């Protein structure tokens, strides 16, 4: 068995959402393949320190903002790697590459270069996951009010919606979810349906969202493009990862009206729970847009909200 090697890699992102890829040079493993800049963690270094050093050595930049994101393991013929991905959103200095054959700024939904290193496929998919999820609550505010707020939120840039309407009669739910999907399509937004895979399939939704109670009962990942789950503890997060889900929701970070009985986690416990997880996690529970920075600093991919998603900012 090969010894596991820790590697730190940076998703260096510009304001337009594009990120930097480098093409591996000749005389390395997988020459010509594309990767995120980074390299091996040396003895005595944290992964974060290693990435800051590598980006200075490889690209000549001094990182000024770095956030933990996801950690994935992969077994190559030459090595068993554990890849710690970080998001780098600001740096000093001009990028001046010393190690790659070429560099390219790419968008996750339309990569123009390839092939990517084999370990990086799920990473590109994770980068396509929107940073904000709006969770519907038409049962509380009425379907017309919810659809009006949905339109406004889509206009403001919301691109991921979970239809979650506990207690809504199935006929009504089918017609409401259909209306959500039609509106979302106009904006290229994704819609996942809470729990009901049959309805999701019938309506042609983009995916299904599993409540935590379903995680234990689900033997294999449901066959949809996007599948996520609600989690409240590390064991549930690990189960979601084991099933190969695309994302998890973790909360409640703050006390909420939806679950007033549940104790709030706070950002520190959130960060501990998501550390080194292989799938992106959206923070949930009493959050609004202004919480995005705290969420991402704690290792979240972004935020999900019921009430907060439909507020005008
Ligand atoms: N930097 C980087 N490495 C990655 C990515 N994805 C991925 O599987 N890896 C693997 O992680 C390891 C990176 O280590 P490295 O860049 O320091 O080493 P290397 O293989 O280029 O050469 P070396 O062994 O001579 O140092 C390689 O095995 C590489 O295949 C990625 O996106 N970025």
Automatic annotation (TrEMBL):
InterPro entries, sorted: Aldolase_TIM (IPR013785), MutT-like (IPR047127), Nudix_hydrolase (IPR020476), NUDIX_hydrolase-like_dom_sf (IPR015797), NUDIX_hydrolase_CS (IPR020084), NUDIX_hydrolase_dom (IPR000086), ThiamineP_synth_sf (IPR036206), ThiamineP_synth_TenI (IPR022998)
SUPFAM superfamilies for this protein: Nudix, Thiamin phosphate synthase
Reactions this protein catalyses: 8-oxo-GTP + H2O = 8-oxo-GMP + diphosphate + H(+); 8-oxo-dGTP + H2O = 8-oxo-dGMP + diphosphate + H(+)
Transmembrane feature ranges: none
PROSITE patterns noted in UniProt: NUDIX (PS51462), NUDIX_BOX (PS00893)
Entry keyword annotation includes Cell membrane: no
A Pfam family per the record: TMP-TENI
Top-rank EC class of the record's enzyme: hydrolase
EC number(s) on file: 3.6.1.55
GO molecular function: hydrolase activity
tRNA processing found in the keyword field: no
Assigned keywords, A-Z: DNA damage, DNA repair, DNA replication, Hydrolase, Magnesium, Metal-binding, Mutator protein
Reported cofactor(s): Mg(2+)
Ranges where the Nudix hydrolase domain occurs: 2-131
PANTHER family per record: 8-OXO-DGTP DIPHOSPHATASE (PTHR47707), NUDIX HYDROLASE FAMILY PROTEIN (PTHR47707:SF1)
Family membership noted in the UniProt record: Belongs to the Nudix hydrolase family.
Name this polypeptide is given: 8-oxo-dGTP diphosphatase
Originating species: Aromatoleum bremense
